[in-house]
Amino acid sequence: MKKTLLSIFLILFVSAQTFAHYLWIETKPTGKLNTEQEVKVYFGEYTYGVIEKVQGENFPNVKDFSLWVVDPSGNKTKLKITPSEDYYKALFTPKIAGTYTVLLNNDNIDVIDYTQYNFGIFKTHYHSVAKVQVGKDKHDTVIQNEKGITVKHISGSDEDVKLQVIYKNKPLAKNEVKIYVADLWSKTLETDENGFVSFKLPWETKYIIETTHKEEVPGKFKGKEYEFIWHCATYTIIP
């Protein structure tokens, strides 16, 4: 009986962990003119130390993402991605000074049936953002996810981080924002009535910010019906 209960617990735990996975972007926070900037895309759970292998069991399910960079003038360029062992890599070369926004979008993931875990049948929409600063002329990151959720970094003080959560081009009020660092440390905040959230960076380490939203609209994708769409956006801060 104890072994059976343990097996059930492990199945539920693994399933919950898989569902909690997210895509995120890593790149150096500053770049140089006419110098290649490397961008990496990971899938897993940073705070748990889980990084999926590109050719593993889980990463192939979310590999059909697009990766773009938007320069300070608003020009958007699609990046060519190449696989590595546990991440996808892309390169771009800044040509003008200012704030660059790297955007990942994946709205092409198969419908998942989690009715056995009391979660339902749903479609997933992942979105990720990263910022690269070239020179001293700082601006907000751009938002380009009309069908889902995204995070905008508001330029300002280096001591505090101010973000705005946007859903379908409108501020998302009273929405949870989770901040993750390594070794199972996390903190949960809530956006204000205008979708803003602010926090400090107490340690010189990598932070991954995640926010999600459940869109209660049924539909059909690739011939399979779903009950709702689960939107997930991440934003990475690297010192």
TrEMBL record:
<protein>
    <submittedName>
        <fullName>DUF4198 domain-containing protein</fullName>
    </submittedName>
</protein>
<dbReference type="Pfam" id="PF10670">
    <property type="entry name" value="DUF4198"/>
</dbReference>
<dbReference type="InterPro" id="IPR014756">
    <property type="entry name" value="Ig_E-set"/>
</dbReference>
<keyword id="KW-0732">Signal</keyword>
<feature type="signal peptide">
    <location>
        <begin position="1"/>
        <end position="20"/>
    </location>
</feature>
<dbReference type="InterPro" id="IPR019613">
    <property type="entry name" value="DUF4198"/>
</dbReference>
